[in-house]
Amino acid sequence: MGWLTWQAQDNGFFWDNILLASKYGQWYYQTRFSTLFVPEELAGYPPLFGMYIAAGWHLCGKSLPVSHFLMLPFLLGIVWQVYLLVQRFVASRVWLMLGMLLVFLDPTLLAQSTQVAPDLALLFLYLICLNALLRHQSLPLATALVCMALLSPRSQLLLPAVYLTQLFLQWQESKTISFQIFIRNSKVYLPAAFLLCLWLGLHYWHYGWVGFSRTSDWGEYAAFVSPTGFLRNVGLIGWRLLDFGRIALWFTAAVLLWHYRKHLSSSTQQLLVLLLVPLITQSLVLVWFTNPIAHRYWLIIYVLLGILTTHLLEQMVRLRVKQAIYLVLVVSLLSGHFWLYPPKIAKGWDATLAHWPYFELRREMLAYLDQRQIKWSQVGSDFPNLAAPADTDLASDRRQLSAKDFATQPYILYSNVLNSFTDQELEALQRHWVVVHELSSGQVFMRLYAKR
């Protein structure tokens, strides 16, 4: 993990982390923690992660490398927590190492591990909760829950998932759940529940809303979906779970579960609870809203899927067969970084390492604009390419490209990393615009168009 962080240290803030890490961190850094509340155009997220980044900058200096190395404690913590989990469900030391390899080869986990992302902190905290539940340790559980209450909206959403997981695990052990168990379990969740209610109350008192402001840039994502949108969300969740090579793991796990269905061990049943509860909990909330469903939302599911598949493979008797299956799974996950969809199908660029060339290509293209004395305000583009270098690279340059407007702008800067160009806009670029400069590396390209 340290090597991966070293390789990524010059990569800029990417995708939602431009807001959640860079803009939040810079606000608390510049205000020196004098207020909990960020400007309303940024608001909607708890303060913990932004404050952590700002504190790291105060201690070690404000730079991209420092930002990346601030994620290293979470990455090492994830490795340790995964080790504890795999050790519990895999008997032999060989399959323990193979299981950990299968987990950390997941393309989305690898991609997120190279970014300054609160999702890594969430994964670390949720894994602490799972190990604490399995080991009946109240203090680590309560501490992780408190941090989750102040980390992000999705970490708050997963608090009930932890509680439900505990109930199902206890039901597996004793085959009964009493009122006394409900009360006893609830005590460890009270500090997190108190802080969550306190934060939401303070947020509402200051801004007059919680969750999403209808006037914000992302307020439209708080709307309820139509029946068609509901079905689309169900399909998207399935796609995210199967995408980038994970389909091989799901297929293998499903076949082996069917094969062992009459003799499922208590360990297998425990693993199914750990995997299914957060999957169902998140899905039951996300399917109702227009909020985009990203690959990174399911990091904990990817980890548990890798552990479950390894656990089931180890039980196979025929050594050569399970070795061959394992090799196929490894190749399938590695192939995920090379999955490239047609131009009109949005790809989760922050979910594989395929996005890495974007950072250098963007810097080169912006330098080309300066060289040709093209004003950035004359160039239209889209998220996440609209952020200023001050927010993506922690530079002093606060210039920004403009939101694309084909009717008024003489230039359009398009990259296949940008998912917000409509099919009609892509067709218009082909018919009525000409490429004046193009850069490419790996799967990523960046094209500057001018009107014909």
TrEMBL record:
The name this protein goes by in its record: Glycosyltransferase RgtA/B/C/D-like domain-containing protein
Superkingdom, taxonomy of origin: Bacteria
Keyword entries, A-Z: Membrane, Transmembrane, Transmembrane helix
UniProt keyword Transmembrane, yes or no: yes
Coiled coil: none
Transmembrane segments: 66-86, 93-110, 116-134, 188-207, 237-259, 271-289, 295-313, 325-342
